[in-house]
């Protein structure tokens, strides 16, 4: 880890002569630093936290407690910071006699992965949302990608593949994610199962969740990160080593999952984590994850030259789809998560599922899906050209969701839709596991995505959804192939595009723009017809 930036205290609230609360303005992962000239010895105790209570003092309910630093300061010059560990915090309660010359800063710590992407929009809410995702990634980008930088610091795996685009389009994490795959391989259990965290620093066996006594240790949407991320990594960076290194572990895991199946489906694990509807079928959530694992494993075997195995896995996945759809028919009682996950597997009926989802949304009044179903929720609206409706749902400032977080002045993405603790999560104010919305911002709003069958970003698709709401958006990405960028503005009727040497892009602009269907390397600008 390295010091990425240094924040100065934005506000110091004095409660008494020896009690102060310092606000650094942004919720980060790091350590406090005190510089001063002390005239006599004193002891200071510091309590870091993400939130303040009604009295304006630090509360540690979202971070775990007690977390504190205690230091004896001698007379003379001081430049103190903790030597070991780091905290997730925005605020610092300080108890003791602070020297009058004290200057408080925060050293923001993270892995020194290079920044490779940006996003901006004329809709300031969307720009702000991107910043929240980016801050949460930074706050959890350490030796492993953690879930939060305070109470656990554990490498929960589902976020690595669910938020793969958010990670890779913001930072160069090629080597970092290869290291994560190594940790998952090493953590594989004798049964072939892959634990929910890697390195497996805590054994969560026996920790019950909604009837599954092993839910926090074995879930296909968590352990399956090995398969999903290995394939995504190869597609993004083009390094076949990630497939060669992991194929044996992948195959052992496939045998394990098949052994856990009943009725041709899976029914174990955590379900749709942080979802607001607790009656969502765990069987649908787990089996949807299994199908994705089988399909990605088939692609891995295809690239490695085992075509018969690839065909067998696709046939197995198709069989699991049939089994799941036969056991779970769409009904008026289907939850939002159930509807979108089934729609993801039954795309020919997307119109019917979309109608069912809208009816459910009218009944629920807000989005209730959790992190596992959220990508499918976004896909259903995007694939049916209803991005404006999706924007309305996600960015409502008064309902649980992204808009609520933005309107509530969050400074990093939070763990739950409500920003609070409860059955749906513990209320961390610095989690990137809901950060998959960053894919939608870059790929759909700005309109830059990797072509479906492409490897290493040699080919892109540029298809901005200009009717979604914003009047302008732009994104830049220093891909493994080189720099891609898209910047569009409907007010001036212009699109600017950059394609790297060796790259190309299919253009899908509205019909009233002067643009070809494909462009090659170079800088291009196109204008809307008057």
UniProtKB/TrEMBL annotation:
Matching PANTHER family: ALPHA-L-RHAMNOSIDASE, ALPHA-RHAMNOSIDASE (EUROFUNG)
Residue ranges constituting the Alpha-L-rhamnosidase C-terminal domain according to the UniProt record: 457-512
Superkingdom to which the source organism belongs: Bacteria
SUPFAM superfamilies: Six-hairpin glycosidases
Catalytic activity: Hydrolysis of terminal non-reducing alpha-L-rhamnose residues in alpha-L-rhamnosides
Protein keywords: Hydrolase
Domain Alpha-L-rhamnosidase six-hairpin glycosidase: 115-445
Domain Alpha-L-rhamnosidase concanavalin-like intervals: 15-101
Keyword Transit peptide: no
Family matches, as InterPro entries: 6-hairpin_glycosidase_sf (IPR008928), 6hp_glycosidase-like_sf (IPR012341), Alpha_rhamnosid (IPR016007), Bac_rhamnosid6H (IPR035396), Bac_rhamnosid_C (IPR035398), Rhamnosid_concanavalin (IPR008902)
Transmembrane segments: none
Protein name (Swiss-Prot/TrEMBL): alpha-L-rhamnosidase
Organism field: Microbacterium gawkjiense
Pfam families: Bac_rhamnosid, Bac_rhamnosid6H, Bac_rhamnosid_C
């Amino acid at each position: 880890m390295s010091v990425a930036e240094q924040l100065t205290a934005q506000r110091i609230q004095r409660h008494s002569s020896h009690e102060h609360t310092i606000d650094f303005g942004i919720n980060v992962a790091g350590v406090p630093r005190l510089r001063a000239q002390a005239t006599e010895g004193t002891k200071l105790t510091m309590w870091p936290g993400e939130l303040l209570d009604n009295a304006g003092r630090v509360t540690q309910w979202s971070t775990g407690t007690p977390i504190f630093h205690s230091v004896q300061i001698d007379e003379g010059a001081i430049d103190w910071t903790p030597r070991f560990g780091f905290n997730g915090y925005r605020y610092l309660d300080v108890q003791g006699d602070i020297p009058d010359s004290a200057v408080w800063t925060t050293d923001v710590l993270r892995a020194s992965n290079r920044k490779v992407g940006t996003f901006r929009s004329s809709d300031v809410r969307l720009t702000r949302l991107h910043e929240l995702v980016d801050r949460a990634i930074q706050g959890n980008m350490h030796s492993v990608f953690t879930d939060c930088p305070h109470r656990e610091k554990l490498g929960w795996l589902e976020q690595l593949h669910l938020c793969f685009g958010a990670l890779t389009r913001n930072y160069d994490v090629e080597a970092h994610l290869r290291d994560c795959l190594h940790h998952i391989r090493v953590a594989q259990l004798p049964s072939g199962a892959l634990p929910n965290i890697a390195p497996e620093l805590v054994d969560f066996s026996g920790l019950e969740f909604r009837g599954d006594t092993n839910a926090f240790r074995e879930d296909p949407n968590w352990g399956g990160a090995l398969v999903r991320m290995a394939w995504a990594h190869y597609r993004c960076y083009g390094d076949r080593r990630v497939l060669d290194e992991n194929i044996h572990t992948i195959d052992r895991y496939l045998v394990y999952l098949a052994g856990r199946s009943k009725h041709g489906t899976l029914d174990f694990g955590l379900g749709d984590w942080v979802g607001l509807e607790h009656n969502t079928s765990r069987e649908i959530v787990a089996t949807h994850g299994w199908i994705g694992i089988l399909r990605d494993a088939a692609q891995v075997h295809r690239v490695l030259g085992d075509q018969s195995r690839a065909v067998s896995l696709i046939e197995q996945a198709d069989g699991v789809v049939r089994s799941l759809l036969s056991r779970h028919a769409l009904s008026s009682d289907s939850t939002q998560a159930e509807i979108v996950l089934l729609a993801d597997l039954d795309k020919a009926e997307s119109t019917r599922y979309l109608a069912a989802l809208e009816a459910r949304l009218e009944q629920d009044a807000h989005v209730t899906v959790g992190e596992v179903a959220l990508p499918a929720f976004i896909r259903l609206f995007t694939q049916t050209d209803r991005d404006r409706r999706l924007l309305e749902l996600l960015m409502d400032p008064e309902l649980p969701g992204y808009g609520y977080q933005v309107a509530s002045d969050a400074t990093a993405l939070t763990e739950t839709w409500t920003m609070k603790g409860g059955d749906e999560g513990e209320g961390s104010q610095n989690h990137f596991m809901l950060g998959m919305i960053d894919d939608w911002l870059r790929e759909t709003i700005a309109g830059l995505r990797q072509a479906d069958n492409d490897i290493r970003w040699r080919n892109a698709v540029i298809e901005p959804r200009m009717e979604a709401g914003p009047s302008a958006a732009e994104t830049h990405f220093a891909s493994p192939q080189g720099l891609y960028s898209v910047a569009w503005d409907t007010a001036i009727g212009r699109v600017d595009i950059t394609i790297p040497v060796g790259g190309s892009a299919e253009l899908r602009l509205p019909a009233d723009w002067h643009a070809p269907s494909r462009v090659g390397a170079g800088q291009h600008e196109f204008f809307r017809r008057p």
